[in-house]
Amino acid sequence: MNLNNASNDQLRQWEQQLSAEYDAIVAQKLSLDLTRGKPSSEQLSLSDELDGILKGNYKSLDGTDTRNYGGLDGLPEARELGAHIFGVKPAEVLAQGNSSLTLMFQCLLTAVEFGFTSAEGAWSKAGRMKFICPVPGYDRHFTLCEQLNIDMIPVAMNANGPDMDQVEALVQADSSIKGIWCVPKYSNPTGVIYSDDVVERIAKLGKIAGSGFRVFWDNAYAVHDLGAALPLANIMEFCRAHGTEDSVLQFASTSKITHAGAGVAFVAMSEANLKGFRKFLNAQSIGPDKVNQLRHMRLLPDIDALNQHMKKHASILQPRFDAVLKALDEAFTGTDLGTWEKPAGGYFVAFDTRPNCAKEVVRLAAEAGVKLTPAGATFPYGKDPQDCNIRIAPSVPTVQEVIGAMEVFVTCVKLVAVRQQLA
């Protein structure tokens, strides 16, 4: 189906056929949800051994009674696991509560109000604050910026990561740009892995940016491969080579590894940054939930155990991704109806419709019983200038439900495109 080459008669015929298919789908009264990248119940059950795993032994490897106060940095063994995930030294890692998003907000707030290395370095003291946001991107990152009145500058993503020519030009020209959001492996939502060249150029931004600039490196899917583990360049190694260690803050968590609402989050940063961030944490906490950290270390005592655990996740997720990609390939390969990446990990597939079609596709899908992430959510302020990007999250439904949802999705994309062409 190539709409640009179709006659009006052919378009009208397609519209009648697709409308009939759509009406038949609506009559089924489906109720399917592809909105959020949450683990399925099947995945969550992989970690049910956490319940009761301590068997009354609350002592960590260094003898700490984890039931008590203290230990602001987190358990040493948990920090060791975080260090393996990031590829940094354990001394550069803090292990905290269940949410890396909370850590991102805390770091952002530290930078805005208090400064990491000095009070004079607080971003808010310099006036207007701006952040570079590769798009399409993660909606929660944009929400954090809005919450703290940080202006957002969209920058295009390509197959290797953000458009670094654009990023570097912006950073050099405007000292009020204080940071950039990055999801470097299986980027949300495109599934792209940043190339080595892009990672090194991001590591070098601290040399050309204004004071206080920070890269927020959200490595949420560091170990979330569907097949063989694919490499991501170590940004801190590049930072050490270029003398920009203070410019990068790294985040990860076990939220999509164990129990999503009861995991462990990690942040890694230079010693200079840690000094300021510890001061911020110490004002609000006597220490994280070390009992939960210990539970996780009994379940996942080392990186090998973690990798084996993630293979079980992959075996559950792969058929769901296969169902999405098979539907897209069969429906749209060789057409002018849309484009998409084929991620090798993570939690999402991003699909770009023809311009000015995404909102209508999402609306029709919802009326047919399939909920999708709102069109525009993957852009700052919810405004996709092309109205084309749609994020598909196939992890929660069963494989058969994903297949059914994709039948609805494909029909809606075709119907909206044909109607637009006729108009």
Automatic annotation (TrEMBL):
Keywords: Aminotransferase, Transferase. InterPro entries: AspAT_Ic, PyrdxlP-dep_Trfase, PyrdxlP-dep_Trfase_major, PyrdxlP-dep_Trfase_small. GO terms for molecular function: transaminase activity. The keyword Transferase applies. Pfam families: Asp_aminotransf (PF12897). The keyword Transferase applies. Transmembrane segments: none annotated. This is Aminotransferase class I/II-fold pyridoxal phosphate-dependent enzyme.
